[in-house]
Design a protein that fits this description.
Layout lengths: L12 E6 L6 H18 L4 E6 L22 H15 L3 E4 L6 H7 L6 E4 L7 H8 L4 E5 L7 H8 L8 E5 L14 H10 L18 H6 L1 H5 L3 E4 L1 H5 L4 H16 L5 E5 L50 H16 L3 H12 L8
Parallel strand pairs: 1-2, 1-8, 2-3, 3-4, 4-5, 5-6, 6-7, 7-8
Length: 357
Amino acid sequence: MIEDSSTKRKNKLMLIAGPCAVETPEQTYEMAYKVSLVRDALQPLGIEVGYRGGAWKPRTQYHNTNGDKVFEGTREQGLHWLSEVAEKYDLPIVTECMSEHDIRHFERELEPDRDFIQIGARNSQNFALLYTIGGTPFNVLLKSPQHGVDVKEAVGSLQRLKRNKIIAYCVRGQKRFIYPDSEEDEIFSEYMKELMQSPGQNPEARNLNNIGSIINLRQNSYIRDNGIMLCYDPSHTLGGKNDELRRMIGEQAIRAVKEFGYEMLEIEANDHGSYAKVDGAQALLISKKNVDWTETNYGQESNLIPGQGKEPEVTPITIVDIASEMADFQAEKLELDYETLRECKNKLDAITWNMIP
């Protein structure tokens, strides 16, 4: 069980990894098994690990480029798969609830002491949903809205979460500016060009990287006094338009912990990204050992072709790599003995891409 006291959580870190959407039982089990191996390595250092996966998937577009209706999740069936892997591998689940009318499914399948209900960016100010989830004992991960982090808005949403034990607020990037009169402003365009030269920004990224929002969030008394965990989602911040951006996801995840002091990371991971029905392009690999690159999103742009992945020229940063950096950070911070860290690194080093449950 995850500890819920802000005092006990003072030196805690949490890594949440898994596919954007749970699409099949085989995919759900395989990735949960691999995430559990990362958990086994990190647990002695006091680093918690959870498994993310969407059963309900809100999508921006209703039709894809072929005119077909987009995939919007496996819903109740996917939630049941998540429940099964949570029990089998003893993993906390993080999964999104889109509507207050669906909460009964989460109450039936998930465990409030263990699992997190995610409230997505599009629903971050959906007060009916906030009040409903806030009336349950589930842990909650609340995403920042698409337009970015406004501390007053964040606190207003968080204050609706009354009964939840662990509450995390997740920074996930912000949309680029939309000109009110539809005409580009020269002064603002120059500002954006300058901004793109800043560390952590990329003109090809899915969103602007607002990793620094933690500074204002941490200064807020409500967030500080109520032990709200601060989480960073580099996957939705940067997207996976190319291999360089996929590497940036890993770089920014490490930076979030080591430079900015985020307590939680939520990262998409899918070892068969080229076949994913949603957001396969921005998923990281668990490990870069023994990889069949054709199965992956690497060597491709964002419009993935199944089975056409290639070994990238840019060295990927994987979930194992991020976990290793978190281990180093935690060991130094807590002054843990070398043998504990060495055992953790050995376990991480033994994880390979082609492991199966």
